[in-house]
Each structure stands twice: as C-alpha cells, then as structure tokens.
Amino acid sequence: MTLPFALPFGLDLPLVWAGIIGFSVAWYVVADGFDLGIGLLFPFARGEKDRDQMMASVKPFWDGNETWLILGGGGLLVAFPRAYSIMMPALYLPVIVMLLGLIFRGVAFEFRGLANRKQGWNFAFTAGSAVASFAQGVILGGFIQGARVENGAYAGGTFDWLTPFSIVCGLGILSGYTLLGSTWLVLKTSGDLARRARSQALYALGAVLFFMALVSLWTPLVFPRIYERWFTLPNFFYFAPVPFFTAATALACGWGLMRNNDTVPFYASIVLFLLGYLGLVISVFPYLVPPSLTIWQTAAAESSQTFMLIGTLVLLPIILAYTFFVYWLFRGKVREGESYH
Fold this sequence. Notes:
- By secondary structure, this protein is mostly helical.
- It has one domain: Up-down Bundle (Formate dehydrogenase/DMSO reductase fold).
- Helix content is 74%, strand content 3%.
- The chain has helices at 13-41, 48-58, 62-79, 81-90, 92-112, 119-145, 164-188, 191-222, 224-231, 235-239, 241-258, 264-284, 302-329; strands spanning 149-150, 153-154, 287-289, 293-294.
- A two-stranded antiparallel sheet has the order 1-2. Strands 3-4 form a two-stranded antiparallel sheet.
- Helix 8 (191-222) packs antiparallel against helix 11 (241-258) and helix 11 packs antiparallel against helix 12.
- The N and C termini lie far apart (47 Å).
- The model is unreliable at 1-7 (pLDDT under 50).
C-alpha cells in the first residue's frame, strides 16, 4: 500500500511508535497500578464498609485504565510485528496468566457490589489483582533478560522467562502497586482507612526501595550490556542523576506520609515509578527484543506505520481528554458510605 502523501518533518516512524507504546505502557502501569494496589490491600481492610469505600475510590477509573494496556499491546502488534512474533511466544504463559487475572478481577469488581455475601468475591478480587500484578513483574523480568532468536524467530524454551530475576521483578511490582494503592487511599479517603493506608504505605515504600536497589545491582552484574550502558564513560555522568532523583523522590514520599500530607505521597509514588521506568528505558534502548533486535530491525513497513499513526494521532487526544475529564470530575475524597453510581 502506498499512501498519497508523506508525513512531514522526516519523522523517524519506529522511534515515534516506540514513544507512543512507551507512553501507553507507562500510563497503564501508573493508572492501573493504584487500581491493582487496592486489590492487594483488600485483605487488610477492617470490614466490608472499608472495602466498599476502597472500591468506591477507584470505581470511576478502573475500567478506563485498561485502554492503555490495549493501546500498548495493539501498537506493538501493528508497529513492530517482528518483535511481537518473538516476545509473545517467549512470554506467552505470564501474559495469559496476567490477562486471566485481570478478567477474574474485573468480574469480581462488578459482582461484588451485587452480592449479599461478599467473601468469595473479595477473595477473587484480591487473587486476580495479585496474580495480574505478579505476572506483570515476571513479564518485565523476562523482557530485561531478553529472548534467544534464531533465523528471525524465538528459539528459546517455554519457561525461559521463569528465573530468580523475573520472580524478584514480580515481587517488586507487587510492592510498587501496594505503594500506589495505599497512597491513593491516603489521597482519596479519610478517617481510619486513610490512617491505616498511611502506615501501610510506609512499609510498602521500604519494600519498593529494597527491590529497586536489588534489581539495580543485579542487572549490571548479570547482564554485561546493561553494565556497559550505565558504567562506561561518559554514560556514567549522564545517568548519575537518575538514582539521585530516585532517592530524593523516596524521601519526599516518606516525608509526606510522616507529615500527614495527603497529596505528596501519591504523586511522589508516581514519580518513583516513572524514574524506575526511565532506568529501564536507559538499560534496554534501542532494543525491543533484547539483546539482539532494535526498534528499527523489528518495525513494520513505513506505509503501515504511517497509516496507523494517522488514526492514533486522532484518537489519542480524545482518550487523553476523556481521561483527564473523568479524573477532574471525580476529584476529591470519598467518605464512608459514599459511592459513585
């Protein structure tokens, strides 16, 4: 297919699409992170009234958050089909487990509000959140490890993704989502629920810092390509601010929690996630199938990328406008007994 026009400014289409997919994944991780974190905190709630309030705090947002996961996955298929054809077989099992967890959790979210006896749906909501969160961390670990490629196809085994490193990444994502969920409750609720969430957030922050430090030390020691990226000159000086800002953000989050500030902990948690995401980008860019295939080597034909980009540039502002409108409309705290209908 030949388009009757070309995009202006000599755009590097693979780079543009990598940016769109990266943006979508980052937004999903943050937005669905606090949503999944609510499910992880469900067992620690004191009674159904607290759980009702926790669910009410995310009710207007939770299903819209999945849009960004679809955009990221669909964009990978459309813009980088070769990478999709390699990474999906490499990570097939954790991806399926993640999707099943999200489905199970979504069903539990809807049916819990209609049930007279909620214990079973509470378990389903927590289990779905935990399974989906852990699977996302395992996928992250498997992606960092990379995939064995021969003749342009995945040549590894079914369980190559299952390593101690990927398990640690899964536990790290669990702690990170717990931090996002607890600081969201600090932001959106009040009373005893918010006070307990503040205490839970401090524990979660400690766990997040532990796993961030562990992964940050593990990756350069095990993967020479990541060591070279971070610790050779002049890269070391370019990237040194990242851990500095990470430490400063963690201090700001802890300060906000101990000073009973409602807003700083949540936004600091988001920045903490984004800094970790930036570290990932620094470690793997420009490889989309580490350590062998770059975004340019796995890109679709220019005409395909151009055609899909036009539609994306139309839809993306609409999605963003709707998302910002919903968050603005349902701003403020959710009190006990309140809900959105």
